[in-house]
Amino acid sequence: MSFSRLEYSSYFGADRPTVTDDERSKGVVSAFPSIVTNDLPPIYDEKDPNASSLVNFPNLPLVVEGQGVVAVQVTPGAEFSIILTPSPTLKDEETALQLHLTTTSAKFLQVKGADVKEIPSVTPKGPEAALLVPGVPDLYWLSVDKKNGILRYGKTYRSAAVTFLGARVDIGDKETTPGPYIWIKQLKYISILSIGGTSVLGDQLPEEVRPDLRQVSVGHLPIVSDLPPIVAESIDVTLEDLALGLTTSIANLSPECQRLYANVSGPGVQVDDEGFPDFSQALEYSIRTPGKLCHEKLKEKAGEFGEADMTYLRITLGSDEGNSPGVPYVMEIWPSKHKSPIHDHGEAYAVIKVLHGQINASYFANLNSKAQIKLEPDYTFYKGGVTWLGPDNYQVHQLHNDSDRVCVTIQCYQYANKDRAHDEYFEYLDGKTGEKKPFYPSSDWDFMTFKSRVKQEWEEHLKDLEWK
Ligand SMILES: [Fe+2]
After folding, report:
1. Is 461 annotated as a binding-site member?
2. Which pLDDT score is estimated for 384?
3. Which among 423, 35, 106, 453 is positioned nearest to 279, based on CA atoms?
4. Each residue of 305-316: b (16+ CB within 10 Å) or e?
5. Which pLDDT tens digit goes with each residue over 417-449?
6. Contacts (Cβ under 8 Å, ≥6 apart) of 277
7. What spacing in Å lies between the alpha carbon of 188 and ligand 1's midpoint?
8. Residue 382 and residue 375: Cα distance in Å, rounded?
9. Which of 87, 74, 68, 90 shows the shortest CA–CA distance to 14?
10. Most buried residue, 39, 76, 134, 231, by most Cβ within 10 Å?
11. Which is nearest to 70 in space by CA: 147, 148, 9?
């Protein structure tokens, strides 16, 4: 049996993957599982007097020795570590890998008995980004890649783009030329160390108590590179695209994204249709003319997200089916030079298609009013172009229309199949104060009502022109 791109197991053990055999036989692959799963019981019982700061997970080893990604949802204290060892409990003659985080340092350590060496590393997003933030719940992950000799550590989203600490190590080849880091090939067992600090409630925690360590998930494959945000039709993918990773075919994405894509990618999903061929032109007119529908609504919404030009219109299609934050299909209308605030997507999947004009997208590693980290590069999507996002990829973005014409997009959303938490809102950073706020997806109009009102307005305008 061949494995899909990424599969995760819960700490129930490697024989209980997040995708069941039944789901797999139906072709469901879990490329981007959510770790927010309510069916995972907490592994730390606060009342347990024997709770230790170091926990071993003998039943949850890496599936392939020396490779995989270990992710821990935790509210850390003053010190946090993910440790990988060749045996369930480390022996003196064995070598372990330790990701060691404190509020002042982030390091990969090579540990052999009492001999502890730091592995030379880099901080792609700056040293600050890599530090431990006590008392704030977050996802901390460690990826080990024996094939490419790469160690990565990141936070919040399991993606290569949010690598906060990286190291390239010489593993070499076991038989012919073993490198100094050949021991990485034997790593298999997971331990988590979380010590002291302050709990979310502000109470000082004793050293021996492990703060709120909630969920651990293990991916079979390491984090190597991210799929690009541009989705191309298979028929358009070139050899250069494959070599440079410029676009992805929809086939590489999760079943959720594939379903969303199938619904909106067809040529019939467009603004200007037979019934109203001037729709996009009418929108431009309605936006630019005082007293008209879009112009007045935008005026009413000015300042909604802080800055005056942080407005766009949300036209919903269909009704809320309880499987997405708000209505699953939303047509968004972006006047020239307008933008969204920086926001996340409640860990949902989304597919966005440009129906008219062009839109620019900027991406971020997190949604944090104090330490916002931007990812490079920005992208521009043109008419007909499709982009995607998932629980671990491209979750935090800002859309901005830098062009001098209106842009119309359709966004569709869906929660992860395994996601039972269902965030009912997105969060955004207020454009003025930088404060994090909830945004409950709203609707300015229902699509059919909106279209007929814009059409009526346009026809009146054309009639006026005739008289002039
Ligand atoms: Fe968005």
Report:
1. no
2. 93
3. 453
4. bbeebbbbbbbb
5. 544 455 567 899 999 999 999 988 788 999 999
6. none
7. 38
8. 21
9. 68
10. 76
11. 9
Provide the 10 A C-beta neighbour count for residue 127. 13
Position of tokens 């990773």? 245
pLDDT digits (tens, 9 = 90+) for 160-208: 999 999 999 999 886 788 899 999 999 999 988 888 654 444 444 444 3
Structure-token pair, residue 463: 């009639």
Cα(394) to centroid(ligand 1), Å: 9
Distance 389 CA to ligand 1 centre (A): 9
The residue among 148, 105, 147, 112 whose CA lies nearest residue 129 is: 105
pLDDT for the residue numbered 29: 34
List CB contacts of 394: < 8 A, sequence separation 6 or more: 229, 363, 387, 388
Tell me the per-residue pLDDT of 294-330, one tens digit each, with 9 for 90 and over. 999 999 999 899 999 999 999 998 876 665 655 688 9
Q: How far is the CA of 396 from the centre of ligand 1 (A)?
A: 8
136 alpha carbon to ligand 1 midpoint, in Å?
Answer: 24
CA dihedral 430, 431, 434, 440 (to 10 degrees): 10
Which helix or strand (DSSP H or E) is residue 214 part of? strand 213-219
343 has binding-site annotation:
yes
Spatial CA neighbour of 226 closest among 365, 123, 122, 343: 365
Residue 323 Cα to ligand 1 midpoint, Å, equals: 17
> What is the identity of the amino acid at 243?
A
Mean pLDDT of the chain: 82
What's the CA gap between 327 and 412, in Å, rounded? 8
Instruction: pLDDT band for 272, please (50, 70, 90 cuts).
Output: very high
100 is in an annotated binding site: no
pLDDT band at 152 (very low <50, low <70, confident <90, very high): very high
Task: Give the residue-averaged pLDDT of 268-281.
Answer: 95
For residue 414, give Cα distances in angstroms to 242, 253, 316. 28, 14, 15
Q: Give the torsion through C-alpha atoms of 85, 86, 89, 92, to 10 deg.
A: -90
Are 270 and 441 a contacting pair, CB within 8 Å?
no
Reduced to 3 states, what is the DSSP secondary structure of residue 99? strand
Domains located in the chain, CATH noted: 2-219 (2.60.120.200), 230-467 (2.60.120.10)
Rounded mean pLDDT, 126-154: 93
pLDDT at 371: 81
Q: What's the token pair of residue 3?
A: 């494995």
Helix (H, G, I), strand (E, B) or coil at 434: coil
Taking 80 as the threshold, does the pLDDT of residue 346 lie above it? yes
What pLDDT does residue 188 have?
95
| Distance from C-alpha of 117 to C-alpha of 445, rounded to nearest angstrom | 61
